Amino acid sequence: MVFVALKRPPRRTNRVACEGTFTPHPAPAPVSLPGTLRRATPDDAPAVARLLQVAYKDNEKLGVEYNAAAVTEERVRRYLVRDEVWVLERDGRLVATVGLQRHIEVRRLAVDPDARGSGVAAELLAFAEGEAAQAGFREAQLFVDGDHPWLQGFYTRHGWEEEGRVSVPEYPGWEMVKFQKRLGR
Ligand SMILES: CC(C)(COP(=O)(O)OP(=O)(O)OC[C@H]1O[C@@H](n2cnc3c(N)ncnc32)[C@H](O)[C@@H]1OP(=O)(O)O)[C@@H](O)C(=O)NCCC(=O)NCCS
After folding, report:
1. CA–CA separation, 52 and 19 (whole Å)
2. Helix, strand, or coil here: 80?
3. Which residue from 58, 101, 129, 148 could staple onto 105, CB 3.0 to 4.6 Å apart?
């Protein structure tokens, strides 16, 4: 999944992490989820990689394949440096994650299979939208695998509008569904 919103520049451009450096982020807005939502650091790479692998591997039961199911620790480390990535931690274990690239591209929303079905993804999605809006963006976009049986309905129920089918560089040859949402201010 990739969200992109480029309607207007962020107010705080200095929050963008450059390749090779890690920029800490101020404390996130509180969420009502049990556990601690915190910014991931590069040291979290092994645990985030495991979480993404388990969460996305589970999609194969639905006949949907994402390359995040086989993501390497090294690739995750680069992702943690480049993007703002958030993790939900419970009892010392990471149970969910969402990433925000350039403040407005939200990536890799994933919940551990054991923690699903209790609104974690919906709350993290709202959190990421809030972060993008706070950074000054008025619209966001996202891409969902066109074959996923229920994710498109999830985004529609949460105010996202389908824009059409596209191909994205991360998934060459695959058809993704592009969604867009106007962010509340
Ligand atoms: C997608 C994912 C993050 C959802 O996590 P979750 O914490 O179980 O989701 P929530 O409990 O917040 O539920 C989200 C919505 O999806 C719906 N949903 C969740 N599981 C569902 C299922 N198996 N069948 C149908 N709908 C389902 C819920 O009803 C809910 O709808 P609502 O918010 O309109 O009430 C999780 O399944 C996951 O990690 N999947 C693998 C990674 C992935 O595909 N990420 C998305 C990439 S675009």
Report:
1. 21
2. helix
3. 101
Q: Please, which pLDDT band fits residue 29 given cuts at 50, 70 and 90?
A: low
Q: Are 126 and 106 in contact (CB under 8 A)?
A: no
Residue 8 scores a pLDDT above 80: no
Burial class (CB in 10 A: 0-12, 13-18, 19+), 137: buried
Nearest CA to ligand 1 atom 44: 56
All structural domains of the chain with their residue ranges: 36-182
The predicted model gives 50-58 an average pLDDT of 96
Using a 6 Å cutoff on CB, does residue 150 contact ligand 1?
yes
**Residue 34 Cβ < 6 Å to ligand 1:** no
Q: What are phi and psi for residue 178, nearest 5 degrees?
A: -95, 130
- Domain covering 36-182, topology: Aminopeptidase (3.40.630)
Separation of 142 CA from ligand 1 center, angstroms?
Answer: 15
Percent of all residues in the chain with a pLDDT value above 90, rounded to a whole number:
48
Question: What would the pLDDT profile of 159-182 be if each residue is shown by its tens digit?
Answer: 999 999 988 777 777 788 888 888
Decide: 71 in ligand 1 pocket, CB within 6 A: no
Task: Determine whether the shortest distance from the Cβ of 117 to ligand 1 is under 6 A.
Answer: yes
Express each pLDDT in 109-119 by its tens digit. Answer: 999 999 999 99
